Amino acid sequence: MADMLKRTSPPVASRPWLAPLPAATRYSLRGGAEARAAVAAAFGVEPPTQACRAASRGARSALWLGPDEHLLIAPESDGATLATALPAALAGVPHSLVDVSHRQVAFEVRGPHAEWLLAHGCPLDLDVAAFPVGMCTRTVFVKAEVLLWRTADDRFRIETWRSFTDYVITLLAETALELPA
Amino acid sequence: MLIIDCPYCGPRPELEFAHGGQAHIARPADPSQTTDDEWTEYLYLRVNTKGVYAERWRHARGCGRFFNALRDTTTDQFLATYRSGEKPPVGSAARSAP
């Protein structure tokens, strides 16, 4: 048990095409327009209503995951503030707010081959015309569920459940063997 | 791979979806008043259409939402998708719940 408590995020080794991203505070928000408005005021970012789009202000982001489901991402240091501010703002509004900070791990696939690497396991059209910067969605990478967010032409933020991280990165690394050295 | 048009997310690959059985089955308003036959019909009996079939699908690895689709069971072609609670597109030959 003590070992489990000490366990940290699975190590994501930096490679030319891969960068670990810092731990974050994450909230899963379910709710309608009223809940979105309450969160916009307390969180500082308005949860987008357009499908599969992310909105950011400073280091905080709100990602559309479903018509009544958003993921809020903030720096880890904001955790304590948000833990009181968000429930206070949402009091009296029908909603569900769940802290999922430690459920998933984030890393970035980047560089000129980012699209190509992800296309190995992801069935979506990742061309920038079909998957523009700012688009985010849950999808699959081979058999793992991942959250894919294009933050720049050649950068994707991937969030995946902790226990899937090794699986996803190992498969990416295997694909990367084909990259020119 | 089939491309299925999620009413919320747009066209997405089949891998992200889960099938949810026949659509438009209404739960009896007062189950305690139904006969065993009616309850059996509601719980277990489904049409097995050859042709256009209205069925539920869930975008399980995407937005997570259930929606309805019209699919031709002989060609596996999706003719239309629409949100839960909406009626099938007019003119469709889909059979609704018996």
Give me some keywords for this one.
heterodimer; A: 181 residues; alpha+beta; Gyrase A, domain 2; five-stranded antiparallel sheet; B: 98 residues; mainly beta; Folate-binding fold; four-stranded antiparallel sheet; two-stranded antiparallel ribbon; 6 strands; globular
Structure description:
The complex is a heterodimer of chains A (181) and B (98). With 181 residues, chain A is an alpha+beta fold. Chain A has a single domain, classed as Probable tRNA modification gtpase trme, domain 1 (Gyrase A, domain 2), CATH 3.30.1360.120. Helices cover 27% and strands 35% of the residues of chain A. Chain A has a five-stranded antiparallel sheet. In chain A, strands 3-4-5-2-6 form a five-stranded antiparallel sheet, with helices on one face. In chain A, helix 2 runs antiparallel to helix 3. The mean pLDDT of chain A is 93. The N and C termini of chain B lie far apart (32 Å). Chain B is mainly beta and 98 residues long. The longest helix of chain B is centred in the middle third of the chain and has 9 residues. In chain B, 9% of the residues lie in helices and 35% in strands. Chain B has a four-stranded antiparallel sheet, with no helix packed on it. Chain B has a two-stranded antiparallel ribbon with strand order 1-2. The interface between A and B is medium-sized, with 13 and 13 residues.
